[in-house]
Every structure is written in structure tokens, then in C-alpha cells.
């Protein structure tokens, strides 16, 4: 039978050691190419070709940890499978025939076969090409374009060059169908201009609808060609930046990461033609111009790797490729199933987020965007622009959207900020900080704060007005400014008091609000709320339904968020008391949603673990009618081995927008990336707008 799924550790380009799981599929027979498709019941199926044996299929529901079903497939099965619009599967299969010129290079005819039983049998053959030509089709090449066209990129060894050595005169082109495989068309064949050969083509669609074809060559690099007419004609070839020894590779689009992925043998050609086929590497690119290598998936210097394929899920990359322990193509080739989690590297993180809807626990994928996957970031802010667009400040940039987060443009040169409020005269109120002068306070990253003002929607700020006024170890988190119904502006701060500076950071926090009644031109310091034990930190306020009643929530190390109340518009505060909201002393946000008339808190819904301030997962959305009694309705971030923090909420009639940092590890640090996530209101009945 099959080997168990084994764990090994690989080194990512950021130096971290990450887990890769592999499964040897059949150790008894030569195997080389493979492909994947999603079954109708949600399982993943891998088709694998075997020499002198029928093709075999393996179905898994748990990323290859176990194989739930295995079956052999006869005529019509291939390593090129695609789901049709009517739910059937189509297989693009080759039939080898003797070449009419008597050359030892066999000819190939192409046919489409169809499966009514989700890949167990295939039939109803339709001819694609039956001219007894030397055509090549490698595994996992057939794709569907945004137009609905299905395209099969192909290599040909032209008849008039049959006396030439195998694979040294490859030309490329494509067959396609616009009616789900019933009729087929053949495009032009493109001969190499500068390369020695063009072989084993793979095609991806670009954002503008054009096609890019990657091909292997014998001159040290993968090459590329472009098509502007759906694959009918192609440009001359030109080099990519990916070096290659004329070896098998895969090139595909990751719909969850919204980027292109290459898995290939990253080496220059050696003395043996098409070798060395090691190391096999994974790289990503946004534009197919600049590639970033993520890791070496396998790097046995005496072995070889080839014919990779990738299947994408929201939380992982499922791959398969052959591995051999010798440096040549041989009967020792064996296909392995490979599982790599996305959270092994920030650049692999999905642009879909799995949200758990409570209480039933249903999982739903929602859109999420990482503005800079290559930049460590934590805090963020969202605010309406002067013209009604939404501005998102994250990862060192300002991003503008006019469609509530479906598309963004970056505003070049904009400074933005983590705390912003629109003033009555249209300006933006922001905050500037300077390290406190007290050396012990500076060591704890405390700061003094000034109000600053922008006339150009955050492009520039000026006009410093002191808020804290005296030197101290103050802290403010993102998205804290708040305007009450009376027009007063509140600036909630926490303070590490001078008498407590020798204690550990954030174990002696006090909280209060500084407030302004003249649009930020002067500020009054409220009385400080001093905790009975440990700390009150990162406070945030919202106004209750009674005018002048302001509720402040603070994080603590006592397992819950704590609250205190003001009944005089934020001037004075009651003593702290616990809420019903669990928290491991972690960042949160607290907002009123005018579309549901509910208060909402996004918080890490867990008790403190063995490490201070953790675990920061799951990050839950809890709702309340009165700010006292809370119900958790969904886990916005639910991966147990990740962490989430510093969330922001912004409300529109049909969706709830949120930003937060997500880390692929359970600690605070270099893997933090800010996500922008859309929660459609129809995700949950209690989120639907009543206005």
C-alpha cells in the first residue's frame, strides 16, 4: 500500500524552520506525472500515472494524512483533468501511434474524454488532434480562462525535424475549446527564435486577460511567451529570471494568495543534459517579473525531482512531484504527495480568511487582503475620506477604496496615521508621539503625545498641540480617538506611573481619557483609574445610549477585559470591574454599529496561557445590546497556531470591514502582517442591517 505521511523540516527564506509533510504514493512502480481536482463531496483527488499499470486515483479529506478512497481508472484517464460547467470531468488523454515516417519517435493523437461519476470512469471520446504528429502534453496543463475558454498548451516536434535529436527542436502552441470540449481549435505553432527549444509549456492568465506561457529550454533559464488573443498566436520567446536545467516545472495562479507560483529545479544545466534536477524550489510573484523564492522543498544533491503540480486551498498548498534518489530519469522515480501549510511563510498567506460562524461552527471563506506581505506591521486605522471614499492606513501606506474594499489604490506619499478623527471643519485630527525623557520610561517605549492636523486627508500633518503636556510613560493604541454626541473628543490613554517604572512593562497600567471641547486645540486630563491588581491597558471607549454615558474597556492579565464607566461625558470614571469578555491580556476593539444598533467587540477569546498575553486565537466577534451582556457569534480568526491583534472595525450597510494583524506563529514579532477583511452582513442573522 502507501507510506504514511511523514514530517520533515525545511528552511524558508526568512531563516525559519517549517514543517513539510510528504507521502510516498506507490513504492512498487515507476511514476512520474500527476494532477489534482476537487471532488463533488469536498475531498481532494490526485490522479497519478504509472508505467505499464492503469492510472490510479487517491482521495483525501485531510490533506493527505489519510487516504479515504483509492481506485484504478482505465481508458480515457490522464494527468490533465478539468471540471466542466455542468459538473462533469474532462480528461485530455494522449494515444501513441507509430510515426508515419518510421522514426522511433512515437506520434501522439489527443482526445477529450468525459466522466459522469466524478473520475471513476471516462468515455464519450471527442477528437482533439488525430494527424499522427509528435505532440507532447505534460501533466496538469489544461486550464479555464476567465472567458470560459478551456486551453491545452502543447509542444510539437515538427515532422520535418524528426531526424533531429529528441526535444532539441520543440515548438509550442495550444488547442482550445469554447463549448466545453465538444469542438476543438488549433492555434499557430511557435518556433524558437533565440532559444534552442521550447518545451513543456504551461499557461496562466494575466489580470488584463492576456496569457503568459512558460516553457523549459536548454539554455539555462525558463523562457516565456505572451498571447493577446486567447492562445491563438504567441510572441517570440524571452527569458524569465528563473534559472533551470531544462527540467520539468509548474507555473500556476494561486487564487487564495492572488499571486503566481512556480515550482521548479533551481539550477543551471550540468554535464548531463536536463540535469541536475535539484534543488526543487517554490517561488511567488505578483507580476511574473520579479520572483521571490520561498524555500527549497527538496535538496538531495544526489537525487532529482520533477513534474510538480500544485493545488491550492485556503490554508495550504497541496503538491505532488516525483522524487528519485539518482541524478537521472529512471525506473526509481516515485511520486510523492506533499502538504505545505500557508502559515509557514507570510508570502504564502491566503487572501481568503476562514471564519467560523457560531454556534453551529460552520466555516465560511471571506475576502482578506494583505497590503504588504513583505512588511512587518501591527496597528492600522480606517477613516472616511473627504470625498466619501474609505482610507485604510496599514503597513506604512495609505490605501484608498471607493467600493468598500473590493479594490484599492495606494496613495503615494501619504503619511496617514494609526489614530485619526474627522474634525467639524473637514481637517483630520491625528496624533504624534515623542519618547519620554525619563530614561526608565523611554526603555519601556513610553511616549508623550501631541495632537496634529491635516488639511489634505493625511498627506501631511502639522500644528502640534500638546495632549499629555508633561513628561511621562504614556501609551495609546490604534483607532482610539472618539467623538461623543455632545461633540467632545476623547483620547483614551494608559500610563505606566513613575513610581512603577521598575516593574515589568504593562504590569502597572493606569487609564483615563484626555478630552477636548474645542476640536483638539486644547486638552484636559481626566482622573486616572488605578487598578486593584496588575494593570489596565490599551483602553477604548464607546458611547452608550444614554447621553453622556461612556463605557471604557481595557485589557488586563486577569482573563477578561475590564470596564469602567463615565456619566459625565468622559470627564471622570468609575472603578474597574470585569466584563463577560474573555481575553489573555491582548489587543481588542470596541465599537457601536449604527446599522444593527449593537455594540461590538473584536477580541482574542481565550484565557491566558503559559505565556503572558497569549494565546491570541481565536479572535472573536461578540455583540451586545447594552454593553453589559455579550454573545459571541463568530471567530473571525480561528487558526490555533496563529495569533491576531490590534483590530479595527468600520461599518457599512451591507458589510463590516475590519483590519487586524495576523501572525503565522503564536508570538508577537517579525511575522505580523496587517489584513483587511470583509465580513458580509449575511454571514450571520444578527449582523444584518435593520436600517
Describe this structure in words.
- 1% of the residues lie in helices and 48% in strands.
- With 691 residues, it is mainly beta.
- The chain has 2 domains: 6-348, Neuraminidase; 352-687, Neuraminidase (6 Propeller).
- It has a 9-stranded antiparallel sheet with strand order 45-46-47-48-26-27-51-50-49, with no helix packed on it. Strands 7, 8, 9, 10, 11, 12, 13 and 14 form an 8-stranded antiparallel sheet that branches.
- A hairpin with a 5-residue loop joins strand 37 (482-483) and strand 38 (489-496).
- The model has no long low-confidence stretch (mean pLDDT 93).
Concise overview:
With 691 residues, the chain is mainly beta.
What are the salient characteristics of this protein?
single chain, 48% strand, 51 strands, 691 residues, eight-stranded antiparallel beta sheet, mainly beta, 2 domains, nine-stranded antiparallel beta sheet, Neuraminidase
Which class of secondary structure composition applies to the elements? Answer: mainly beta
CATH architectural arrangement of the largest domain: 6 Propeller
Percent of sequence in beta strands: over 45%
State the total count of DSSP E strands.
51
Apparent shape = elongated
In the CATH scheme, the class of the largest domain would be Mainly Beta
What is the CATH topology classification name of the largest domain?
Neuraminidase
Helix content: under 10%
Radius of gyration: 30 Å
Q: What's the structural blueprint in terms of helices and strands?
A:
Elements: E1 6-11, E2 17-24, E3 31-38, E4 44-50, E5 53-60, E6 69-73, E7 81-83, E8 89-97, E9 107-115, E10 123-136, E11 143-144, E12 150-157, E13 171-177, E14 185-186, E15 199-205, E16 211-216, E17 221-227, E18 238-243, E19 250-254, E20 259-265, E21 280-285, E22 292-298, E23 304-312, E24 316-324, E25 334-341, E26 352-357, E27 362-370, E28 381-384, E29 390-394, E30 397-401, E31 409-410, E32 421-422, E33 428-435, H1 439-443, E34 447-454, E35 462-466, E36 473-475, E37 482-483, E38 489-496, E39 509-516, E40 524-525, E41 537-543, E42 550-555, E43 560-566, E44 577-582, E45 588-593, E46 598-604, E47 619-624, E48 631-637, E49 643-651, E50 655-663, E51 672-680
Antiparallel strand pairs: 1-2, 2-25, 3-4, 4-5, 5-6, 7-8, 8-9, 9-10, 10-12, 11-12, 12-13, 13-14, 15-16, 16-17, 17-18, 19-20, 20-21, 21-22, 23-24, 24-25, 26-27, 26-48, 27-51, 28-29, 29-30, 30-31, 32-33, 33-34, 34-35, 36-38, 37-38, 38-39, 39-40, 41-42, 42-43, 43-44, 45-46, 46-47, 47-48, 49-50, ...
